[in-house]
Write a structure and sequence with these properties.
By secondary structure, the protein is mainly alpha-helical. The protein has a domain of about 80 residues. About 55% of the residues lie in helices and about 0% in strands. The protein contains four helices and no strands. α2 runs antiparallel to α4 and α3 crosses α4. The longest helix has about 35 residues. It is elongated and about 70 Å long. It starts with 19 loop residues before the first helix and ends in a 17-residue tail after the last helix. About 0% of the residues are buried. This is TnpA repressor protein. Keywords: Plasmid. It comes from Pseudomonas syringae pv. tomato.
Amino acid sequence: MPACTHPNKERTSMPISSTDEEWDELVPENFDTTALLRAVDAVDVLREDLNDREGGGPPQLRTDLLLLHQLAMAVFNDGSRSQVAGLFEFAVDLEDQVLGLMTSLEQVQETLSKLTALYPESLSYEDGDVSES
C-alpha cells in the first residue's frame, strides 16, 4: 500500500485506474460511507480528552497521570497508607477514561480497515504498467 498522501495534494505520477472487476467491488453494499462520519465523531471524543486546554495548558489526562504518579510515589516509595484508597480510586477512574479513548480509536481503526480491505490491487502497482479498464 502506498504511503499516506492527502487526496488534494498534486500528484506527479501518471494516475492508475482500477480494473473493472475491482471497480465492481466498490459498491455501497461493501462499504457504508457513513462509517467514516462515525469515525470523525470518535475522533471528536478523543479531542475532548486529548486537546490542549485553554491558554495552552496540557491535556487534563497528562496532568492527571502526573498527579497519579505523585500519589503512587507517596504510597509505594514513602509508605503513605493514608493515600492508598485515593491512589487506586484515581487509577480506576483514569483506566476507565483511557478505555473509552481506546474504544474510540478502535472504532476509527475498524472503519479504516474495512475501507482498506477494498483497496484495488491494481492501484498498488508503482510502475504504472496497468492496462486501462
